[in-house]
Amino acid sequence: MKKILIVDDEPNIVEILQDVLSEAGYEFRAAVDGKQAILAADSYRPDLVLLDVSLPEGGGGGVFKNLRQSPATRDVPVIFLSAMPPAEIQQLVDSDAHAVVHKKPFKTQELLELMSKMLGG
Fold first, then answer.
1. Domain ranges of the chain
2. Which of 66, 74, 28, 75 is nearest to 50 (CA)?
3. Which of 13, 51, 99, 110 has the most neighbouring CB atoms within 10 Å?
4. 3-class SS at 72?
5. CATH 1.10.240.10 holds for 3-88+97-108
C-alpha cells in the first residue's frame, strides 16, 4: 500500500483528500503546517507528498526545499495543491516540483490519475 503525506492547513481539503485516498486504497497521514510536514516526512517516509503551496510555519516552498535537501525524501514525488492562479506558482513547478493540482475547483479524478502515474501504477 502506497503511503501519502497530505500537507494542508484547510481542514475541509484534508477531509476531502482523506476520503478520496481511503477510497482509492492509499495509506495516508496529514500535517497542517510546515514544521509538522518536515517531521512527518522524516518519520513516515511517504511514497508521495500532496503539498499545499500556502502553509503556516515555513510555507509550501520551504517544505519542498527541505524535502529536496534530505536524503530520505530527496526523490519523493511532490504534487503541489494550490488555489492560486497558475502564473503565481509556475516558479515552484520550474524549481523541480513534479506537478500542480488546483484546489478550487478540486478535481479528485485528475489528482488520482496524476498520483497513479507518478507512483508508477
1. 3-88+97-108
2. 28
3. 51
4. coil
5. no
